[in-house]
Amino acid sequence: MTERDITERGRIEATPPFHAQTVERVLTELDTSVLGLDADEAASRREKYGPNRLPQEPRPGPIRRFLAQFQNILIYVLLGSATISAILGEVIDASVILLVVLINAVVGFIQEGKAERALEAIRDMLAPAAAIRRDGHRETIPAEDLVPGDLVLLKAGDRVPADLRLVETESLEIQESALTGESLPVAKGTDPLDSDAALADRINMAYAGTLVVQGFGAGTVTETASKTELGRITGMIAGLPPVETPLMRQLEKFAGVLTVVILALAGAMALFGWAVQDFGARDMFMAAVALAVAAIPEGLPAIMTIALAIGVTRMVRRNAIIRRLPAVETLGAVSVICCDKTGTLTQNRLTVEDVVTSDESDTVKQQLLRAGLLCNDGEADWHGSGWTYHGNPTDSAFLAAAVSAGFDPAEERAAHPRHASLPFDSRRKFMATRHLFQDRPEPTAFLVLKGAPERVLDRCAAEADGSPIDADGWKTKIDALAAGGRRVLAVAWREAGPEHETGYGPLSDASLGTHFRMLGLVGLIDPPREEASPAVAECHAAGIRVKMITGDHAATARSIAGSLGIGDGTRALSGPEIDAMDADTLRLHAADCDVFARTTPEHKLRLVEALQADGRIVAMTGDGVNDAPALKRADIGTAMGANGTEAAKEAADMVLADDNFASIAAAVEEGRVVYDNIRKSILFILPTSFGWSFVILAAVLAGQILPVTPAQILWVNMIATVTLALALAFEPSESAVMARPPRDPAAPMLDLYLLWRTLYVAMLMVAASYGAFLYATATGTPLAEARTLAVTVLVVCDCAYILNARRLNKGLFAKGLWRDNKLIGPAILATVVLQAGFSYIPALQSLFGSAALPLDGWLIAVVAAFTVSILVEAEFQIWKRLRRN
Length: 885
Ligand code: ATP
Description:
By secondary structure, this protein is α/β, with parallel strands linked by helices. It has four domains: 4-56 and 120-238, Calcium-transporting ATPase, cytoplasmic transduction domain A; 73-107 and 244-316 and 668-884, Calcium-transporting ATPase, transmembrane domain (Up-down Bundle); 320-347 and 529-659, HAD superfamily/HAD-like (Rossmann fold, 3-Layer(aba) Sandwich); 351-525, 3-Layer(aba) Sandwich (Calcium-transporting ATPase, cytoplasmic domain N), CATH 3.40.1110.10. The protein is built from 32 helices and 24 strands. The chain has an eight-stranded mixed β-sheet, with helices on both faces. Strand 14 and strand 15 form a beta hairpin. The longest helix has 41 residues, at 661-701. The protein binds adenosine-5'-triphosphate (ATP). Residues 340-342, 392, 394-395, 424, 426, 429-431, 450-452, 487, 489, 549-552 line the site of adenosine-5'-triphosphate.
């Protein structure tokens, strides 16, 4: 029995808690080492302890989710209508209304389930990962697979994946507000503490759910899943947020207004018919019910949900993972994309291209490469056949350069052990380390500095050989390298002064001093991604400004931006220049300039705010822990999936699986398609609803008999929405979506033109179906058959009109009418079959009061449908011409 087993049964008194034990004791108790577990042991512990995952809040059960489908004001009106019909003894109408409400709820329930599953699948894709050491090698595994004894490696931006007893720390700071409420980060160490230290004081532990804000660390897992401190507090993680977006809320509001209008109109109509036209009260009640069910677009909410879910799925296929559903809509309105350079526009495969020293001597060059290897947070791993590098790409490039010059990283590091470091930080723009010469008789300490050349130069007093520094000469060399698009870093070193004499104690900005010797410059290339340049051009054509934000030198930034087609090739605004501007000045410049250099994450936040103040919808990319505020603030915060930190991903609305700029452009395109498809569905459904309402109004006002019954209206509404309009949610992208400017987010979904078009189509449909009805009754056709004719004409007109509604910007005769959307043909066919059933199946005849339609009825319907479709097309063409002139 291991001590761990004893712990499981309730800690025995003698065993102090992990934070009170030495590192060695903890490792022994957990039966592990600083090299981590081996694969077999990890697997058997995984069996024993289960997944490192908090149980999820149970989802509302299917019954509750089904009942939620009825919580909608439009449904209340329908239920009210059913009640009135029932009271008046119109059992069939009442049951059909109830049936429709039911079908609608079932469809909504199924679609919502699909949308939720789509989101859930995405959540799995974003499951956090943990870097661990296994068998002495570095590996990345799903955080869920962690077991007690695993050795987890931490770096800035990581969310701590389990409770850890720290075994190594380097400038490690962790923000623990999730647990302790304390928002200031806590500096961590490894020394044992008092057993009764409070949670907030246990600085040698890292707790699950807290955030690493600086430095590095390694810790062995002590507890996982619900046994962690976080698990004890929360017990479970929150379930999925409800599927709702601003557009849906807008629609709900619209539904509210619509309901009031419908009720008022129905009431006024009934009163008028009863008082003026001498209709019976009962008939007028039923007419009011008919008007209400006609005007309500029952299927719209379900179609909207499915259109959004399809958008999410399509975006995933194009490597953009949506974390919050509203982002799907907002993406379509994006007018500015602010993008990091390294890794998103470029390949993030940094390689050392130039090494520039003062006298081109080999000794200095060797010294520089060695210094670059020592002052480095990357790791080089020999795998038998070659080296692999971990860590940030700049550091990896330095390691690779040193390795190819013949250095052995492990040997060098052993010969010059590192005693302190000031890690790289995008605000500081350099890193510094302190080492010892092991080989000297008297161990002496020395410092190495590596970073943005102007920062390094500021601290240099001498050249490598000790002569006074030629700062101007270096500046010329820096500019020349940067103008060639190189990322430029300088490396310097100095022997540590008396303040560092012992070789111990922390390193700080102040203790670094300014007596460094300049070893030289390194120029790194990072080729642009192949897809970046065409994607930038696509965004420009789509009226979207692309702005490049980088921590690099202005000249480097300009050169790379120029090769991608970003900016005018001459202007670049730098971080210090931004600092000197107040919000108003920045607003002017932010809109104008497309390249921002030497920036820090704080500048990103200010830029987002400046652009938003100008009315732009901003997508902003980020990867670091400090990028989180800018990502949260942006309309579309976009994090890098491969190289981004957990902190950035959590703050983002969208995560790019491939860290690629082109995926943002693709997501914007899909966002526009979703918005278009919702608009198309509305444009398709509303004319039918409006048309019927007009017919009923007109009939009552004219003192005529109703051409359709409420049940028949519902029949048309249902097949028009459930079969036909649903196909519109699957419409692919129109070629023009990325050739027009972004939509104005403040503009209503239905602009004046679309409103006009809705009314125009509604009038055409009324004319066709009411006309057919009047003609039929005038020629002595029985009422049931005349009504069937009216319904058939409308349904067939819908089948033709859907072809017009498929394109917002193209005519009926443009290419690909049937080909692009394979669902359109089957949807039309299904509708016609259903309509035939309506007319000929006895059961449906008695349910809907329909009758068998002779062939000429169908002919009338087909001719009417063609005419309506052609007239809509004619209007579109005239309008297009007018707009062009
Ligand atoms: P981009 O915005 O293009 O992605 P970035 O914001 O990642 O770039 P930073 O990482 O902040 O840019 O780097 C800014 C500057 O800091 C670089 O130009 C370089 O001079 C310096 N630098 C970058 N990485 C390191 C490193 N590992 N060690 C020392 N200095 C570095």
